Amino acid sequence: MSGDNYPDGDRNEVNPTGALRRRDFLKTLGGGLIVVATLPLAGEGLLQEQQARRGGQSAPADFNAYLRVGEDGRVTCYTGKIEQGQGAMTVLPLMLAEELEVAPSTVDLVLGDTDLCPYDGGTVGSQCVRIFGPLLRAAAAEARVVLVEMASEKLNVPVERLRVKDGAVYDLAKPETKVTYAQLVQGKRIERHAAAKPPLKAPADFKVMGWPAPRRDAREKATGRAKYAGDIRVPGMLYASILRPPAHGAKLKTIDASSAEAVAGVRVVRDGDLVAALHEQPDVALAAAAKIKAAYDPSPSVLDDKNIFDHLIKNAAPGRAVAQGGDLAEGAKLAATTIESTFLNSYVAHASIETHAALVEPKDGKATAWVSTQAPFRAKEDVASALGIPSKDVHVIEPYVGGGFGGKSGNPQAVQAAKLAKITGKPVQVMRTRADEFFLDTFRPAAVVNIKSGLAADGKIVFWDYEVLFAGERSSQQFYAIPHHRTVVRGDTFGGGGTTGAHPFGTGAWRGPGSNTNIYARESQIDILAAKAGIDPVEFRLLNLSDERMKRVVRIGADKFGWKPAKAPSGRGTGFACAEYLGTYLSAAAEVAVDKATGKVKVIRMLCAHDSGVTVNPDGAVLQIEGCFTMGLGAAFAEEVHFKNGEVKDLNFDTYQIPRFSWLPKIEAVLVESPQFPISGVGEPAITITQAVLANAVFDACGARLFRLPMTPERIREVLPK
Amino acid sequence: MVEPIQFTLNGKPVRLEVDGERMLLWVLRTELGLTGAKYGCGEGFCGACTVIVDGEPVRSCQAPIKTVRGKGILTIEGLERDGKLHPIQEAFIKHEAMQCGFCTSGMILTAYALLAKNPRPTEKDIRDGLEDNLCRCGTHTRVIQAVLTAAAEMKRAVQR
User: Fold this and answer.
1) Domain residue limits at A668
2) pLDDT at position A159
3) Nearest CA in chain B to A630
4) pTM for the complete prediction?
């Protein structure tokens, strides 16, 4: 599942020249033992994935994460990743603590600070545990080796006789002979590079990984002390409110800011298309911006949420086959039944409760920036370029991020804040209004999937011809034992790749990018085939699967759910699906009730069987699965951005409905272990299967097959069997 | 119009010279330096800005400061007493009833008002009471568990 290309949603480059080099970083630290790790340590496959993300460019060759064992015995872990609620700050120290044999409570974490952490391309693509976990484990294993060597010298005991436990090295023969890590590094300063083949612990020996760990951010978040970018205050700062055009593509002609400027203390700045009202108070700036009279040329866009799919089909990029086997013509000859379907999904917003915010404080030719972003190092470059100063002079500090989901990978608000700070010479904070947030969002792209597939008389799928437009490659490849198949991708994972302007506004990564669309389409089609064959959906999947890891997660999911075999639609409202997402295997089962008069769906319960190798923090994983299922209810049943001629119609939560307490089903997560496989992420997989399993449950309830997301009551009523 | 406005904030008297039309949210977040109440939607749809005014949950982004004159305001920062967290806060931590945490202050304070009126809520009561508090990360299941736990804990505390 490598080879995704991420030109816009996940722009990622080699270590920029302006970034601090390893030497500069390390000299800022105090004494102790410092071990650095580079990406190749994560393994060849993961390195290739990283390189593919960089459009083939090599990864930063310098270093990507490091740890320090301090003279006080505390361990500090430094990575450029950020905490957006997914639990990175809780789970990463566990992986480090495991290999170093220290209590997780003795591990401190520095995340996303560009002066303290090594360059990082962004917290995207379920990388924290999957890719940075192995790096930290390698660094910790190396540190353990070094500490044991030091202890051998100090205690005059051969290395083979030494063991480590609770931050100390002891003599196996005489356990009372021991020396702590703090004692070992006292007065020393040692730098090491993690070895190419670190002596990692086997899963059977894990004492930290695999056991529940409490969230590190829980207390700060429950007390209101957790700071987000919009909460930062510095002396003399101004708040900016930025003028929003009425539509994408509308060109600003003239402005009359006289009424706004008449407000005491308000300054209006125009810099090209950027028009802002600034004031010492955010609400005064907001009210002043509302008084600016602006005239625009209308948007040339003629697209709306009805005609968009015809437009996308006409403007899709040429196809490339990402997987194929056998011969489709041969497969067609074997088919007793052929089924052709087209699946559509609408644009979906990120709708994090925190809107984009940034504060940029220029001082003495340098600058500090606090940015709500998934990519602080990119923000550093963006802010430097807007201020016209070298990026080494910009320090980005990463507060908590109030939800990202892929929507905070660019930093337009930081660029605006920097420009305004440069013009006014004061610290400037930009915090988008909710309307700005919807208007400027990089939506999950509307997409189209065409599938033609054939069934033999024995219920085996004999051919599978799959084409996806605008959702990209991720999770597009089917994993069933189908002799004749082809998967064609047109456009990349974030909806680009068509002709210029294919989408009327920005699109980008949305939690589980591409996979939500691909899995919904594939698993719906599998269900259609099962129904046609008259076979129970779980039995049909098992009949057509050969991948043992997938079959296991299907069986466990069905068993734990209490799945009762029946041909769909059975009227009971139970649905099933299975999927693979960046190395995580999962299945889902759901039970729904459909009100046939209104078309409204009530989801009663959902279960996920989830195999991400070893689950590092089971508590965190279950929370992520619950969160994925809950968030996914929105894209399944309600979330769709309405637009016309460049104008975004949904600008707040009154018309754009996200899941609420009353929507909530009973959710059960079953963690399945496969220690022989690499550890993969838990923050995204379960959402990618949600829409599929619910579409199948709706069909089972009432016979209505939905070929378009979201499955609104109107759309369900339209296809309900009369 | 700038006017003197007095109220009680987290148990302490406050006197401000401020335009009475300004929304409580912004006054809290800037003049008073309390950033626990969040801006989420600005129109009262999301609940992230919820604070307690005389026992009632109020959307502070929709409450002109003049409307709290003489009243008692409780924000998330005032829930902790002498270094001891409120049972609702403890329960949110125990159940990890947050991810990004941006809606958490509003959730906790809405639950606080709910439990003050209904100390023994059913799960349905909690869902109904929190229906208009939005969470994008999907921690709803945990929030319900946390409020149930807090209710039980507060009941025990009363009996002690």
Assistant:
1) 308-348+443-719
2) 95
3) B138
4) 0.94
Number of domains composing chain A = 3
Q: Where are the alpha helices (DSSP H) in A347-395?
A: 376-387
Residue B127 touches chain A, beta carbons under 8 Å: yes
Instruction: Specify the higher pLDDT residue, A226 or A37.
Output: A226
Instruction: Tell me the sheet residues that pair with A507.
Output: A443
Q: How many CB atoms lie within 10 A of CB A255?
A: 16
Could you read off the pLDDT of A580-611 as tens digits, one per residue? 999 999 999 999 999 999 999 999 999 999 99
Compute the residue count for chain A.
722
CA distance A435 to chain B (A): 8
Which domains are delineated in chain B? 2-78 (3.10.20.30), 87-159 (1.10.150.120)
CB atoms within 10 A of CB A375: 28
> Which residue among B23, B33, B141 places its CB closest to the CB of A283?
B23
Tokens 């064992």 locate to A69
Q: Are residues A267 and A409 in contact, defined by beta-carbon separation less than 8 angstroms?
A: no
**Which ipTM was obtained for this model?**
0.98
Distance from CA of B159 to the nearest CA of A (A): 25
pLDDT in tens, A93-151: 999 999 999 999 999 998 888 888 888 778 777 777 888 888 889 899 999 999 999 99
DSSP state of A136: H
Query: Which of A86, A64, A66 has its CA nearest to residue A77?
Result: A66
Structure tokens at B22: 């300004």
The token duo for A450 is 């065409």
Indicate which CATH number applies to the domain containing A378.
3.30.365.10
Share of chain A above pLDDT 70, in %: 92
